[in-house]
């Protein structure tokens, strides 16, 4: 059977794909398969197999990663960094020196402040300041009220405050 891509060489690679529910099959030569990213799955297995057999004959276990593992969930820092998910609460303590800089960079803080984090509290505590025009308008309303009540001393004080703001 000839390669379905180039049509020149004999096909030695059979590829099956399902993309968006659409099933397709291809027969490709090794050169076309390599260009499309389909490589030999068994390449380099001879080296791994000889290492495995060698370990049986020399009574040595295969080399194990020296990465620190969490004693509760078994996660390593590299697994957490790769997945973006911390394994358990103990991982925060165990990998604190490496996790906290990333958490601080992403979230801006390393402690939980709550959903609103004081946004509404600031608005309630800080009263809105009145503009100069609003203060003058309010003082004039108070002055009119004082005149209606015939409290002329208070009206005179308010008049002086208004002049001070206007001048």
Estimate the global geometry from the Cα principal axes: elongated
Element-level helix/strand string: EEHHHHHHHH
Strand sequence of the main sheet, in spatial order?
Answer: 1-2
Q: Find the count of extended strands (DSSP E, 2+ residues).
A: 2
- Count of discrete alpha- or pi-helical segments spanning 4 or more residues: 8
Rounded mean pLDDT is: 77
Poorly predicted ranges:
59-64
Radius of gyration: 39 Å
Question: What helical percentage do the residues reach?
Answer: 40-55%
The biggest sheet, with number of strands, parallel, antiparallel or mixed sense and barrel status, is: 2 strands, antiparallel
Which strand-content bin applies to the residues?
Answer: 5-15%
Structural class: mainly alpha
C-alpha termini separation: 99 Å
What does the model show?
The protein is mostly helical and 167 residues long. It is built from 8 helices and 2 strands; from the N terminus they run ββαααααααα. A two-stranded antiparallel ribbon has the order 1-2.
Brief characterization of the structure:
This protein has 167 residues and is mainly alpha-helical. The chain has helices at residues 30-35, 45-57, 77-83, 89-94, 96-107, 119-125, 132-148, 152-166, and strands spanning 13-19, 22-28.
Per-chain topology:
Blueprint (H helix, E strand, L loop, with lengths): L12 E7 L2 E7 L1 H6 L9 H13 L19 H7 L5 H6 L1 H12 L11 H7 L6 H17 L3 H15 L1
Antiparallel strand pairs: 1-2
Keywords:
50% helix, 167 residues, single chain, mainly alpha, two-stranded antiparallel ribbon
